[in-house]
Amino acid sequence: MKNWKMALGVPLLFGMLYGCGSDKATDDTGGTTVKQEETDTNTDTNKNTDTNTNTDTNKDTNNNEQAGTTQNLPYNFAEFSLDVDYSPTESYEVDYEYETTGVEVELDDDRNNVKLRGDEALAKLEPMFKKLKFDASTPNDEVIDHVISVFGIDKNYTSFELEVKFADGTEKEYNKTK
Predict the structure, then answer these.
(1) Which of 4, 43, 69, 103 has the fewest other C-beta atoms within 10 Å?
(2) What secondary structure does DSSP assign to 94-111, as a single string?
């Protein structure tokens, strides 16, 4: 009886292990394996696309998912936090955070008595976000001047603090005090 159970159990075990095999697919151009994460983020390999680009895109998607972002960010950053102080009671603050579950956006402008959240804040800030053309390698002073220009920041500020988490996961801080 014991041998009978083993004779049926071993092939069944091998069948289960084989069925739970690799989730990698091999393309038709050179044996490159690409891990299939989600069908929405993969490119159809039958189209005229470079398979190396497909592999790189999937790697970028995997890296960004680990950082809490996705490949299809609307801007070149996943997080943007701006705090400009004019006085102890007046400031201009922008907070933007892109997550896989949604976007969190806030705008607080004490000088103009504006406090916006969610879609209202995004509608006001989106044109400015689209104008931001810097990355992690842009010099700090250039980033600060660019943000001041795009957001129309009054040059009479006392402190400027910007924290950005770029699409590639790099985080940078930009500070200027007068």
Answers:
(1) 4
(2) EEEEEETTEEEEEEEETT
Whether this prediction's pTM lies above 0.85 is answered by no
Smallest CA-to-CA distance from 138 within 76, 54, 78, 85 is with 76
The position carrying tokens 């002073």 is 141
Tokens read off for 166: 């770029």
In sign, the C-alpha dihedral spanning 30, 32, 38, 40 is negative
Distance (Å, whole) CA 169 – CA 92? 25
Question: Which residues of the chain, if any, have pLDDT below 70?
Answer: 1-71
Give, for 44, the enclosing helix (H) or strand (E): none
Spatial separation of the C-alpha atoms in residues 80 and 77, rounded to whole Å: 7
CA distance 85 to 92: 6
Using DSSP's 3-state secondary structure scheme, residue 85 falls into: strand
Per-residue confidence (pLDDT) for residue 82, from 0 to 100: 98
